[in-house]
Amino acid sequence: MVNYLGEYKVIIPGAADFRIKDPELYAQYYGEAHPVPEKLGDWVYGNPELHREQLVGAARIACAGCFATSVILALYPLLKLGVVMGKDIIATGLVGSSAAGASSSDASHHPEREGSLRVYKPVGHRHTAEAIQELPGSFPLHLTAIATPRVRGILTTAHVWVPDGYSERDVWSAYREVYGDEPFIRIVKVGKGIHRYPDPKLLDGTNFCDIGFEMDNDTGRVVVMSAIDNLVKGTAGHAVQSLNIAQGWDERMGLEFAGLHPA
Amino acid sequence: MVNYLGEYKVIIPGAADFRIKDPELYAQYYGEAHPVPEKLGDWVYGNPELHREQLVGAARIACAGCFATSVILALYPLLKLGVVMGKDIIATGLVGSSAAGASSSDASHHPEREGSLRVYKPVGHRHTAEAIQELPGSFPLHLTAIATPRVRGILTTAHVWVPDGYSERDVWSAYREVYGDEPFIRIVKVGKGIHRYPDPKLLDGTNFCDIGFEMDNDTGRVVVMSAIDNLVKGTAGHAVQSLNIAQGWDERMGLEFAGLHPA
Amino acid sequence: MVNYLGEYKVIIPGAADFRIKDPELYAQYYGEAHPVPEKLGDWVYGNPELHREQLVGAARIACAGCFATSVILALYPLLKLGVVMGKDIIATGLVGSSAAGASSSDASHHPEREGSLRVYKPVGHRHTAEAIQELPGSFPLHLTAIATPRVRGILTTAHVWVPDGYSERDVWSAYREVYGDEPFIRIVKVGKGIHRYPDPKLLDGTNFCDIGFEMDNDTGRVVVMSAIDNLVKGTAGHAVQSLNIAQGWDERMGLEFAGLHPA
Amino acid sequence: MVNYLGEYKVIIPGAADFRIKDPELYAQYYGEAHPVPEKLGDWVYGNPELHREQLVGAARIACAGCFATSVILALYPLLKLGVVMGKDIIATGLVGSSAAGASSSDASHHPEREGSLRVYKPVGHRHTAEAIQELPGSFPLHLTAIATPRVRGILTTAHVWVPDGYSERDVWSAYREVYGDEPFIRIVKVGKGIHRYPDPKLLDGTNFCDIGFEMDNDTGRVVVMSAIDNLVKGTAGHAVQSLNIAQGWDERMGLEFAGLHPA
User: Are B238 and B52 in contact, with CB atoms under 8 Å apart?
Assistant: First the structure.
């Protein structure tokens, strides 16, 4: 566990130790009691889009998880604006092999892993705790994670329902309203061509979270899609952006890479 | 459209023309009225697991769609046994590039397509009509299709809720009861190791539909997973199996390939 | 090392212990003296195309190596017919990740291995010894092996020079003459289209060795290409074919799989 | 063909029109006479490592080809220093799908192209002309190009022979002497670990040419390996670097991207 008592001026662990504020929620998803629950309140959750103000001057930043980030950023605007109906929310994350870490294993052996599409966490994913904590409102949220043949990247699809009369244009306005000034969030929704929706293929090495959506007018279901590079926006880049804000620097510093295409 | 008046003894089109029995359902998902609605009743839907008896002697077999097959086979036992609660069902299909057909396009151009994770049909997928028609009961069903870097294969995850007291062991019994004698359905659910759940990587060239599931005991959510090779069980193999049954032959004939590993 | 004294009626090791007949050649490429050099003569080299007659009734068959097989089968006809000039022969093998074995390692970790093009044996590949032993004539032969992103398969290109006046048609005749009746060798050379030359992509799971060639008329250089599935023709399938011959069975038995396309 | 008479101050075409200075060499590899042979002498070949001095102030820069670049940079030091024996030189280039251009075709259709290892130009590759022109000395040079499953990147292996007494340390010195100050050439040769030799996987988006080598002490054969991103060092990045030199700017400007790992 991170040395939360250390003398360092700023600590931004990549690990999950201090992301969750509620010891009970922590215990539910991590399977054991938190060893120093009285310290949980000292940390700011390292998600700039939700906590920019608290991050200013922060010295203890609990860097957000990658899958959690893709779920939270996908759903935050609609939940913040209170337009989501109370149905269960299903979010499915498609992740690359780098999400399993840098150590080799039987599961990561190339002949086994290449070309694989495997559900690896159908229920009980720990990042659910972060999403429950950070997303406004109270609702049942279910996360499922599937391994794909990519190395980097997460594509998350989440399904929510909006009330009668709420249009896709309203959805668009909601995302614009909440994310309009965000330097690393892009709304990707194009009527034609190949790149109509977010695709992590375009994001390797970047700090962007691309978000798209599509509405089923017959049912009010909105499918929200978000794509990130889990090794940047999901982890290291997220930490850098949070640090930049904490220190009063340009939050884009060190995160300028715009990506490669094709790649 | 298939020459449904033809003199051929047996017709098994791969196309979707005669899969749907209800002209209104057809129109809803295909965007136009069916040209010969009076002929729709002449066809048996080519899914051996659901219609083996009707297939015996059948001369007009409407071969099932691939994504529809993965959804139907995943959900059929629980719906047939009436243990699914009335919540919306979300099914997500991860498909390979062969699903888009044999013709090249900008979207299938290798530099664009390789490594891509793209939602290509978030709402309104036509195969929804087949799943609605074939699955027992009445409930809201939502399909979302996502392109993955594989060439062959579909992995579908579907989320349903079962009543209090219904256990994972009961789920297992349900699949055993309904599919116990099926030659091409395998329950894949292992506690340890790499291959705990279905993976289309293991199914290239085979007629198997591998089915797994996992239950969230806290919420009663069951995540059902099904994997097929869309070019076999989803289409051609499905047709061969249906023909074998129609003609009274061994239904496994021509479908013996057991797959490669690793591949 | 294989129990060469064992009581088994037939022994066909997949390992390399008894492939080389000359102890000095063995020592040169394996870096140590052979422990039982007096036993080397007891074994037939398990390559049906070169040793079909010796394999009949054989009880000790040293199964050929995969890269060696692709090199030997590519070059054998031209060398047997004595039409290759005395220049150095360069053969380059592009192999998949399964060639490195079933155990995971840092090098086989998917994030590291996927998409990689790495020379892993530029000089001194052990299979050179098999190729030198089996190919007719005396000439300098150099093998280089490169890891590619595939799981299965080897594509080998080899460069030889033929005398003035020897035409591409003559090359074709040479391969027809030597391999015309071979059940698992196919000459792949088409003027148009995608599949003009051998490609291991088409061979997963099959026992075929596809061979193609192209001649540079200005210089007399012939580029010979061979493709195999290293897990079949290179190893297990090769052993099965050799056993079939040894036992007097149909040599194609158990090797009927014709491959998948696309895959 | 490029408007070579245009009023533009600087012209750096990506096309091959003015790369070759000798009309006969052009005709040999391009299959037709050059339309304006009298203009060929106006152009500087856009390879900074070989022509940095001529590039200063240049207004007509014929940007080098990608495969040619990988061959030229691999072989230049040894040929410049005159230590290569007169044997035929074989160079094999493994290229990604982006090398075939941005237009879709049957050959680039993902189900066909993915996982493919296909020789697409066994003999007569046009870039041979560039390599013959640019490399010092006179010797037979043979290029073979093979398509691999990557999107970007070229890995080239070339085989040359050095005289008795010339050691691998001497090879190392040769590359140091010629490329020691080059900002975009790195010698990659490590005794242990995964990344012992150049691999285009590490170079996506960068302007680096990584070069490695290995010597067969028994025969004096040196296998030289070079890796580039064909869409940067091979084309656009090469042009930018040449322009920077031509204009007297820092030649690294706009080419700072250091690459991603893993990717």
Answer: no
| Phi, psi for C253 (deg, rounded to 5) | -60, 130
Subunit contact C115:A151, Cβ cutoff 8 A: yes
Lowest mean pLDDT among A100-104, B178-182, C186-190: A100-104
Distances (CA, A) of C32 to C20, C26, C145, D168, D192: 13, 8, 22, 24, 22
At A71-98, the pLDDT tens digits run 999 999 999 999 999 899 999 999 999 9
Q: List B155's β-bridge partners, or say none.
A: B94, B227
Residue with tokens 């010195």: D173
B151 chain-D contacts, CB cut-off 8 A:
110-111, 114-115
Please count the other Cβ atoms lying within 10 Å of the Cβ belonging to residue B137. Answer: 12
String of DSSP letters for B57-114: T-SBEEEPPHHHHHHHHHHHHHHHTT---SS-EEEEEEE-GGGG-SS--TTTBHHHHT
Provide the annotated active-site residues of D. Answer: 66
Question: Which residue among D151, D257, D262 sits closest to A263, beta carbon to beta carbon?
Answer: D151
- C193-216 mean pLDDT: 97
Angle between helices C127-134 and C66-80 (to 10 degrees): 20
pLDDT in tens, D205-245: 999 999 999 999 999 999 999 999 999 998 899 999 999 99
Q: Concatenated DSSP letters for chain B?
A: ---TT---S-B--SSSTTS-S-HHHHHHHHSS--S-GGGGGG-EEE-HHHHHHHHTT-SBEEEPPHHHHHHHHHHHHHHHTT---SS-EEEEEEE-GGGG-SS--TTTBHHHHTT--EEEESS--THHHHHHHHSSS---EEEEEEE-S-SS-EEEEEEEE--TT--HHHHHHHHHHHHTT-TTEEE---SSSS-SS--GGGTTT---EEEEEEEETTTTEEEEEEEE-TTIIIIIHHHHHHHHHHHTS-TTTT------S--
Q: Which residues of A touch B263 (CB under 8 A)?
A: 115
Across the interface, of A112, A194, A213, the residue whose CB is closest to B107 is A194
Chain D hits for A260, Cβ within 8 Å = 152, 204-205
8 Å CB contact between A230 and A260: no
Nearest to D225 among C116, C119, C214 (CB): C119
C-alpha span between D183 and D186 (Å, rounded): 8
For residue A102, the chain D residue with the least C-alpha distance is: D262
Q: What are phi and psi of B80, to 5 degrees?
A: -60, -40
Mark yes or no for CB contact A146/B223 under 8 Å: no
Chain-chain contact of B114 with D103 (C-beta, under 8 angstroms): no
In degrees, rounded to 5, the angle at the alpha carbon of residue A171 between the alpha carbons of residues A169 and A177 is 100
The phi and psi torsions of D146 (rounded to 5 degrees) equal -130, 135
Euclidean distance between CA atoms C58 and A92, whole angstroms: 57
Cα dist from A37 to A8, A132, C220, C242, whole Å: 21, 18, 78, 68
Closest CA–CA distance from residue A104 to any residue of chain C (Å) = 5
Q: What is the pLDDT of residue A7?
A: 72
CA-CA-CA-CA dihedral for B7, B9, B10, B16, to nearest 10: 10
D115 burial via Cβ count (<10 Å: 0-12, 13-18, 19+): buried
The rounded distance, in Å, linking the Cα atoms of A8 and A61 is 12
- Rounded distance between C-alpha atoms, residue B72 and residue B156, angstroms: 10
pTM, whole model, 2 decimals? 0.96
Q: What is the nearest CA distance from D113 to chain B, expressed in angstroms?
A: 7
Determine the residue type at A73.
L
Do residues B90 and B144 make contact, with C-beta atoms less than 8 angstroms apart? Answer: yes
D114 and B114: CB-CB below 8 Å?
yes
Within 8 A of B97 by CB-CB distance, chain D residues are 110-111, 114
